[in-house]
Structure formats: structure tokens, C-alpha cells
């Protein structure tokens, strides 16, 4: 039972990342009808926002420390972060320690701006083009973004630690009556799950209960009728592209302490996220979220040593096997709408 609960937790962790990326993908496809293969790159850029802010906060200059000497008795030169000069050592250490959560504040406007630039500068020219053209151009854009990041940050993963308060693991089993240390789970992965739930709930609440969201949902259902009413639906859809980019970016920011950011992490998640979208149903936001968690949990169970010993390599293909089975029995996915990509 303890292993069962642990795999559920691992699955919710993986599913959170899949669901957030798939949610942004579905927002873009549902509003603009664009199959955006550059969405994984937006996830990666969010992670590098966290890396960049961490590097900025740790920029330092040399200062002679009279209290410390080398073996010859000469005062040592030590590196002092610039944030100490502006805010003092106590606040400076706090800012450095909490650089990842603080990156959220920077990531929101940055990712929205990147989304606007992508949509207005390139993707708007492919609205009426075949989906194959959209896939090719956005995949090419993803490669360009990936190589730019590689040029500036290098090819190696860059460790980006979580705040010290969330370093270590939580004894989850004690709460459920198990022996101590039976179910140990990292604090930050729990934080990531709850953060994902907040973002997902926020997106659904925005679409469901705000006037802007209601107009967007109406435009997703019948774009021409909304346009006849005098509403500039194209402008609202452009804003939704920016919001979808921000969702992917925030997913990347908070994922940075879990998996050290590298230039190809977006591609690692991209294919799986598209499988999630297809399984959930093209254009279905609830389907994308449900499929993300479902496939995350299945992948987690397939990674157990007992399962791998019985079926070697099953953890690498389980998501695709499930996708094949679901699409054979439900061609539109779990919650797909009639007519979406069926022309």
C-alpha cells in the first residue's frame, strides 16, 4: 500500500507538468485553431527565467575581508553579491534563497510579451494554412529558440535550487498511519502539485466567470457569430495566446528545481504533452487536464521496478500504448468535441 500511494504521488507530480503544458496547448488550439509545436519551448523559457533571475541575484563583486586571512596572513578577497549592497545581507540572502518563487513575478509579463510577439509576428500568418504547415513552422521556431538558449546558457543542465524551507522530504506516511519513513516525498514536488492546481483552477475560473472568458468561450464555439456582434474576437484570441504562454512559462519556472533546466527540456515534454492533448480530446480543456493526470499516474506505475522486471521498457511506451487504445475505442479522445480536426 505504501508503494501504491508513493506512485500516486509521483504520478500527480508528473501529471501536473503534463496538464499545465497541455492546458496551454489546448487554449491555443481551441481559440486560434493552431497546432503550436513551439509550446514546449515556452515551458523551457519559463525555466530559464528562473535561471536568469537566480544568476542576476547572485552577481557579485570582490571585497577585502579584514577578518579573514590566507596562509601568509594577507586579508582575503571575498565575493559579495550586489543585492547585499542594496538590501543588506539578511534581505539579500532571502532574495537569493527565494529566487525561484520570485521568478513568477518576472515570468508573467515576460511570457505574455513573448506570446504576443510569437502570435503577431509569425503564427497569425498561418491561421488559414493546413495544420501540417503550422506544425512545420512552429517546430522550426522551437528549434530556433532552443539553439538561442543553448548559445547563451550552454548545453549542460543548470541547477536551480528550491528555497531552503522546501529542501528535504515530507514523511507523508505518518499522516496515513504508516511507519515512519515508509512514504517520503520531496517538499518541492508537493508545492509544484498544489501550484499547478491553483493555476489550473485560475484558468478555468477566468474562462467560466469573467466576461472576457465568456466571450472567448463563445468565440471558440462560433467565431463568426461573435464577430457579427461587433466584438473584436481576434484581439481577445491574441490575448489568450499570451495567457497560454504565461501558463507554460509558470509551469517551467516552478519545475526548475525538480529538473535542472537545459536547452532541450521543452522538446522532452512537447511530444508527451501533445499525446495528452489528443488523448483528452482536441480542443477540450477538461480533457487535457484529466488526461495529463491519468497518463502521469500510469507512467509512474509503469516505472516501478517490479513492473519493469516483468515488462522491460514498458515505462518508455506506456503513454503511447494507452493513447492507441483510447483512440481506437474513442477516436475523438476522452472528451473531444465533434468536428474538431475532422474536416
UniProtKB/TrEMBL annotation:
Its main location: membrane. Pfam families: BPD_transp_2. It is a multi-pass membrane protein. The keyword Endoplasmic reticulum does not apply. The chain crosses the membrane at residues 16-35, 42-61, 102-123, 191-216, 236-257, 269-298, 310-328. GO terms for molecular function: ATP binding; transmembrane transporter activity. One of its GO terms (biological process) is amino acid transport. One of its GO terms (cellular component) is plasma membrane. Keywords: Amino-acid transport, Cell membrane, Membrane, Transmembrane, Transmembrane helix, Transport. SUPFAM superfamilies: ABC transporter transmembrane region. It is found in: Cell membrane. Belongs to the binding-protein-dependent transport system permease family. LivHM subfamily. This is Amino acid/amide ABC transporter membrane protein 1, HAAT family.
